[in-house]
TrEMBL record:
This is SDR family NAD(P)-dependent oxidoreductase. Its EC number is 1.-.-.-. Keywords: Fatty acid biosynthesis, Fatty acid metabolism, Lipid biosynthesis, Lipid metabolism, NADP, Oxidoreductase. Belongs to the short-chain dehydrogenases/reductases (SDR) family. Pathway: Lipid metabolism; fatty acid biosynthesis. Gene3D superfamilies: NAD(P)-binding Rossmann-like Domain (3.40.50.720). It comes from the Bacteria. It is an enzyme of class 1 (oxidoreductase). GO terms for molecular function: oxidoreductase activity. InterPro entries: NAD(P)-bd_dom_sf (IPR036291), Sc_DH/Rdtase_CS (IPR020904), SDR_fam (IPR002347).
């Protein structure tokens, strides 16, 4: 089911347009909603838990004066998702999409509940792809817009957690890089945010109690979002909030690009030639 409700008590702050925030009912999405409202964005808040969204929407409308709207949707449900897509396609006031809603599954591949993995792929991969597609044409036509995709550092280190979860986040990172090149030519900004472990409900929801994590690895959610927004303000395409040595990231990217000329050639590498193997 999908419902919408509006809340507004605008005062004098000029609007920066409307930000659509998925997964706004808790954690990273709820903090982004707070920060974006304080920057002057009107908000469309998307998640399944309409009661939590409404409490947040009411508070932000009251405290900041922006217009807030609740759009209840289960983004794994095609009919619900289509309503959000429709909104993104038809509302020219939308200037920012935050693809944040996500879930994790814990455990090994052999132990995994494949139905839960499929739901995760629907939420972490299919939904942000379809929502990005829904908003991208309008952004490109208007030569403006910001797309923020929440990936994860696990996109870079699949050995550290579930391979299926990290795979969904590697997808988000790759899609973001590709869209940076394609949409960037049309004046659209695309940022991929790669949080490390962040203190939110996702851990308990996935059955990995947050208390079991080394505390020095855990960032508070407000700190994470503020760092990610600082990265956006600095024009970063990929933001890794805890990475001090940013040259390490640049070096990785340089090494990856250096492979480019050698990855698709007519001939196999010499070590694969029959004569070499014999
Ligand atoms: N916390 C971390 O350590 C960490 C690290 C790296 C990346 N991330 C990523 O950050 C993003 C936000 O996660 P979080 O840490 O803030 O976790 P969270 O507190 O569990 O928030 C997840 C959000 O997604 C929404 N959601 C879940 N299933 C949904 C569905 N089927 N349809 C629509 N919305 C749904 C939830 O709302 P409802 O339950 O109301 O639907 C909630 O608002 C995710 O993409 C996650 O993969 C998190």
């Amino acid at each position: 089911m999908s419902t919408a409700a509006s809340h507004s008590s605008r005062t004098s702050m000029p609007s920066l347009g409307t930000a659509v925030v998925t997964g706004a009912s808790s954690g990273i999405g709820a903090v982004y909603a707070d920060r974006l409202a304080r920057r002057g964005y009107d908000l469309v808040l998307v998640a399944r838990d309409a009661a939590r969204l409404t409490v947040l929407a009411d508070r932000l409308a009251r405290e900041t004066g922006v217009r807030t709207e609740v759009l209840q949707a289960d983004l794994t449900n095609p009919a619900d998702r289509a309503r959000v897509e429709q909104r993104l396609q038809s509302d020219a006031s939308v200037t920012l999409l935050l693809n944040n809603a996500g879930m994790a599954v814990s455990g090994t591949f052999l132990e995994s509940d494949i139905d839960a993995v499929e739901r995760m792929i629907a939420l972490n991969v299919v939904a942000p792809t379809r929502l990005a597609a829904a908003v991208a044409k309008g952004f490109a036509a208007r030569k403006a817009g910001t797309l923020i995709n929440i990936a994860s550092v696990l996109a870079l280190v699949p050995e550290m957690f579930s391979g299926t979860y990290s795979g969904t986040k590697a997808y988000v990172l790759n899609l973001s890089k590709s869209l940076q090149a394609e949409l960037g030519r049309h004046g659209v900004r695309v940022q991929a945010v790669l949080p490390g472990a962040t203190r939110t409900e996702i851990w308990d929801r996935a059955g990995t109690p947050i208390a079991h994590l080394p505390q020095e690895m855990l960032m508070d959610v407000d700190t994470m979002v503020d760092a990610a927004l600082a990265g956006l303000d600095q024009g970063e395409e990929v933001t890794i909030p805890s990475l001090e040595a940013v040259h390490e990231w640049t070096a990785l990217e340089d090494a990856r690009r250096a492979l480019g000329p050698f990855l698709s050639l007519r001939d196999p590498a010499r070590r694969y030639l029959a004569a070499a193997v014999a």
